[in-house]
Design goal:
Serine Threonine Protein Phosphatase 5, Tetratricopeptide repeat, elongated
Length: 139
């Protein structure tokens, strides 16, 4: 019976110790959440995981916060590391389009099509961009 009490007391002490060391993460929250910027997003990309996907994900975060210029920089880094991923070109072109850079967006898609000519995503994005661009030119 004494062994059960000793185990129970040990478990409780262990749980309290864990809570003591984790209390900062549990109970302290920032007054204002950080808005992602190119600098603090890049701090999350360490040298071991400096991959195209990590730059793409950083770009998506910036894109979601409407930081299109910074997102384009991250998408460029992703493309430089892996130029055979259609999503990288597509999202970069979408950011450029959101900035009103329609011709640059079309050029980005065409660059991607040099490496991935059979990409349905890039071909459909190009059709949409060209239709929108021609429509704006005629107005």
């Amino acid at each position: 019976m004494k062994k059960h009490y000793i185990l129970l007391i040990t478990f409780i002490l262990l749980a309290l110790t864990c809570l003591f060391f984790l209390r900062k993460e549990i109970f302290i929250s920032p007054k204002e959440p950080l808005k992602p910027t190119s600098e603090n997003v890049n701090q999350n990309i360490n040298s071991d995981s400096d991959s195209a996907k990590s730059h793409y994900e950083a770009g998506l975060t910036l894109f979601a916060n409407q930081s299109y210029e910074a997102a384009i920089v991250e998408f460029d880094k992703a493309i430089a590391l892996d130029n055979f991923e259609a999503d990288y070109y597509s999202k970069k072109a979408q950011a450029e389009s959101n900035l009103g850079q329609q011709q640059q967006a079309i050029d980005t898609i065409n660059e991607g099509l040099k490496y991935i000519p059979t990409s349905d995503l890039l071909n459909s994005r190009l059709d949409i961009l060209q239709r929108d661009w021609i429509g704006k030119q005629e107005q």
